[in-house]
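Q: Here's a chain of 260 amino acids. Please give me its 3D structure as tokens.
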Amino acid sequence: MLFGFICSKHTIMKYLSGIILAFLMSSCTTQQMNSNNQTIEGKWELSSINGEEINSEKLLTLTLGENNQLYGYFGCNQVNGTYTINGNSMSTSQLSSTRMMCDEQAMAYERTVLNALENKQSMQRDENEMKLNTGDTQLTFNRIGNTAVVGRYWKLLELDGEKVTFAENQEKEQFMIFKTGDKVYGFTGCNYFNGSFELEGDNEISFDQNMATTMMACQDIDESKYLQVFKNAETYKVSNNKLYLYNQGNTLAVFEDVLF
């Protein structure tokens, strides 16, 4: 009887040990999955399709949110749905979008991305780059770090305390976009410009001292004041969907975040 009791006790302890071990392994697996999900969550800029760099005035983005929610803007419409990560692959479901019509290039980008997302994709990624490959299409994304500034379309509202007006012969509004890779791109009212920027500390900012621009000549449009902002800006602030650029505490320019 005593031997039987000892055996029974030993069996019970072995059984309990197995349960505890299985629980610990399950916890570790869950934690690893959560860690992976946290790594991939965030806002990503579409930088190329099949190795060809995106050429768009607007920022094409994919946001992978909490609870496997997916949001996107790929040139024309707002897209939402859900996503699932399984090892080195990603799949999406329940994709839906608004129904706007846009220019041919924007629609082509959007169709290509949506067609790719509707298929299962193999995934290669590190902390700052993600590649989704369906076999026919490869989408390359770069993580957007400082989402308060980067990955947004900033429309110019004020220069040196004066509201910006739209000239009669002006093609479109003045704007700038901070892109991944520390690139900045925009329109002065006459010419397009591009260059680089750097964010440091909590609110320091600096730009290329000599932005590259197109060489259009426009009557009644003075772009020099806008371009001078990039030479003088030292600090910035984002508040209520507005971006303020300062030099020694003086406001150089005010921009508004425009959502598409």
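Q: Can you summarize the key feature?
A: The two ends are 79 Å apart (CA to CA).
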